Inverse folding.
């Protein structure tokens, strides 16, 4: 890993060794947010004749697909890491509050992810509808702005949650390497139905 990249990466994940999925998701999320912003700007530039419509169309289709892929991976990452922390908490090696904190990340982030995915899917479709003269340009434009705003908010919020999730995951990883008697935590996780 290059020293400059390593310094940037370890600022967000101080205990991580090497490249992690969380680090990839942070970087990929920011790159997609920048590309989505560029696509929106290109739409206005295409309307003014500065760039070709085909450039906006290609960027406007590929970028949302990449962003949707990144958001889907983010959802499954939180599901998988939450499950790993739950298993360690069930064995009594970490406090169950750590598991419940990972659940709260999902409760807060997943609705934003679903909204971002829906808007990212709708925007190119509305652009095609405008091109076919079936929808006004303002609808496509408003959808693009909404998608961009929700995506940026989700990406920034996701970075904060990924950082804290990585700390919890590292704690669970260290605790799972210790024998259960040394861990010092005896509380397990309640069943899913017993706590809402």
């Amino acid at each position: 890993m290059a020293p400059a990249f390593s310094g940037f990466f370890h600022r967000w994940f101080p205990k991580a060794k090497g490249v992690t999925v969380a680090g990839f998701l942070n970087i990929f999320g920011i790159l997609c947010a920048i590309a989505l912003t560029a696509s929106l700007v290109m739409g206005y530039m295409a309307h003014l004749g500065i760039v070709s419509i085909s450039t906006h169309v290609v960027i406007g289709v590929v970028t949302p697909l990449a962003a949707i892929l990144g958001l889907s991976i983010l959802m499954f990452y939180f599901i998988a890491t939450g499950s790993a922390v739950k298993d360690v908490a069930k064995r009594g090696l970490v406090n169950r509050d750590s598991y419940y904190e990972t659940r709260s990340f999902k409760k807060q982030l997943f609705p934003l992810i679903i909204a971002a995915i829906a808007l990212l899917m709708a925007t190119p479709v509305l652009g095609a509808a405008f091109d076919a003269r079936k929808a006004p340009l303002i609808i496509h434009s408003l959808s693009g702005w909404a998608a961009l705003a929700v995506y940026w908010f989700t990406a920034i919020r996701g970075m904060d949650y990924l950082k804290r999730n990585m700390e919890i995951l590292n704690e669970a990883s260290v605790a799972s390497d210790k024998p259960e008697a040394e861990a010092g935590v005896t509380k397990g996780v309640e069943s899913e139905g017993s706590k809402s």
Helices lie at 3-12, 21-47, 53-90, 96-131, 137-177, 180-183. The radius of gyration is 21 Å.
